[in-house]
Write a structure and sequence with these properties.
Layout (H helix, E strand, L loop, with lengths): L1 H12 L19 E2 L4 H8 L6 E2 L3 E6 L5 H15 L4 E6 L6 H5 L8 E4 L4 H18 L7 E6 L7 H8 L9 H19 L3 E5 L2 E2 L15 E2 L3 E4 L2 E4 L8 E4 L2 E9 L11 E6 L4 E5 L3 E4 L2 E4 H6 L15 E7 L4 E6 L5 E3 L5 E3 L3 E3 L3 E12 L2 E13 L8 E7 L3 E2 L5 H8 L3 E2 L4 E3 L8 E2 H6 L1 H4 L2 H14 L16
Parallel strand pairs: 3-7, 3-23, 4-5, 4-6, 6-7, 8-22
Antiparallel strand pairs: 1-2, 9-19, 10-11, 12-13, 13-19, 14-15, 14-18, 16-17, 20-21, 23-24, 24-25, 25-26, 27-28, 28-29
């Protein structure tokens, strides 16, 4: 009776993608997984060392400049084509920075990569939708696998912005975020149904309507009551609205987005109070960014690197007197368009607003540090953090190594996971006990130098069981690493 009733309603609705849950929800099942090229990164994305990005999902690789975002995208393109002989890639290059040699050096089959170069959001939307429409209508199951890459989102203007520039007008398009929402709203269902995933590369990420929850991620926030400068005086950050004018280091800018407790994905983030030499204070979340030497730097990096001077427009040189943890506050974040991603606080400190980013089913934020061998830099260590995921737990971090000569290290991050899982036991002086070392105590650097000797199939399977329990969204346990007080 219930089935006949619901099937009748489904027929009456005219929705070709409607289905009973007992028969499987159309577009909700992954048919395959996209390997990232690194076991630890796969765990971060999917909660499984041997999976990666679901074929019916989209993923954002976000971070500041030179954090390996495009490299990761190309690495995943390589593994996608290697694992799928029939696979094809559509690469939307909006930065006009790709060269054929970049693909060839990474072993990517250039005959199976189509590079598109849209110049506007509307152009990208039209191209992507037309491609999905042809993919659905032209090819029947089993279709050749297809991966789409957008690199990068931040470089695309709206048609309105292009027209304004032609007319000599320096006017921001206040509807730009709505254009992105509309673009992805039109694509999401098709991508899921057709199992055609998309990698999105960008410096920023915010919620796209219908693509993930309504709550959005911001790259650090300030507490309510923080005073910011405007052309008419200082105002509380919580009073600002879209369209309001605000002072930036580059002139007057307009607020294009505002997020508060109801729209932040982590409204209860750990907060810190920064006290300056003039007695002024700023309360912000731990992931908030300030400008240091003209570059956007996160608060935790400011703490770890013992940075004492932040960029300021004040004539008086302000030094950081202290930074301490404080209870969580009501937080607010704003985005200011086309003005160097900054705005000025009451005491003259230049705050970064580089955090508003476009989201997907999975958001991975990347940051980097130098990797050295005998004092010589041989690559970068990229810390990947799950900002949002439907398969793994938010806030998880892994460190992956990108070597200049050898590329992404497949086993980077595995030593730390082996220790966390208890499969390897860390001793003193950087030595470890492993299931394959017997009574020998092995230095961590020796394990990293010959990972396949120590990460046997049995060891990997044991670590993966721990990953599924502790890092996947459906796991029953939660690993907590208490940070030291500052």
């Amino acid at each position: 009776m219930a089935n006949d009733f619901l099937k009748g309603m489904m027929k009456a609705s005219g929705d070709e993608y409607g289905s009973l849950v007992s028969d499987g929800i159309v577009g909700n099942g992954a048919k395959w997984y996209l390997d990232s090229g690194c076991y630890a990164m796969n765990a971060l994305i999917s909660g499984d060392l041997f999976k990666g990005l679901s074929s019916n999902r989209g993923m954002v690789l976000a971070g500041e400049e030179s954090t390996g975002k495009t490299f990761y995208a190309l690495e995943m393109v390589y593994h996608f084509l290697k694992d799928n002989p029939d696979g094809q890639v559509i690469y939307f290059d909006t930065e006009k920075s790709l060269e054929e040699s970049m693909f060839e050096k990474r072993g990517i089959d250039t005959k199976r990569v189509l590079v598109q170069q849209p110049s506007t959001i509307q152009g990208f939307r039209t191209q992507a939708i037309n491609i999905l429409e042809r993919y659905e209508k032209k090819y029947e199951e089993p279709r050749p696998k297809m991966l789409m890459v957008l690199d990068s989102m931040g470089m695309l203007s709206s048609q309105s912005e292009v027209d304004n520039m032609i007319d000599g007008k320096d006017v921001a398009d206040m509807k730009k975020s709505q254009l992105w929402k509309a673009a992805f709203r039109a694509m999401i269902l098709k991508m899921g149904i057709l199992n055609a995933p998309m990698l999105i590369v960008g410096h920023t990420y915010a919620n796209i309507g219908g693509y993930g929850p309504k709550r959005v991620v911001a790259g650090g926030c300030l507490a309510e009551g923080t005073m910011v400068r405007t052309p008419t005086g200082t105002v509380g950050i919580e009073t600002l609205m879209v369209g309001d004018e605000i002072l930036t280091r580059d002139g007057v800018g307009n607020v294009t987005n505002v997020w508060d407790r109801e729209t932040l994905i982590n409204p209860d983030a750990q907060c810190y109070e920064i006290e300056f030499s003039d007695g002024s204070t700023i309360v912000c979340s731990e992931d908030h960014k300030f400008f240091v030497g003209g570059k956007s730097v996160g608060l935790l990096d400011i703490i770890n690197d013992n940075i004492s001077i932040l960029d300021s427009t004040s004539l008086e040189k302000l030094e950081i007197r202290s930074i301490k943890k404080v209870p969580s506050r009501n937080l607010v974040d704003i985005e200011v368009a086309n003005h160097g991603s900054n705005y000025i606080l009451e005491n003259g400190i230049v705050s970064s607003n580089s955090g508003a980013k476009y989201a997907a089913s999975t958001i991975i934020e990347l940051s980097k540090a130098k990797e050295k061998d005998n004092g010589e830099q041989i690559g970068v260590v990229i810390t990947a953090t799950t900002v949002k995921s439907r398969m793994s737990r938010e806030g998880e971090k892994v460190k992956t190594t990108l070597l200049f000569n050898d590329g992404l290290d497949r086993y980077s991050g595995m030593l730390e996971l082996a220790e966390r899982s208890g499969v390897f036991k860390k001793l003193t002086a950087g030595r470890y006990e492993t299931p394959t070392s017997g009574d020998a105590k092995i230095f961590g650097k020796h394990i990293k130098a010959d990972p396949q000797k120590y990460f046997t199939k049995e060891v990997m399977d044991e670590i993966n069981e721990w990953v599924k329990e502790n890092m996947s969204l459906g796991g029953s346990k939660r690993y907590i690493d208490d940070e030291d007080e500052v």
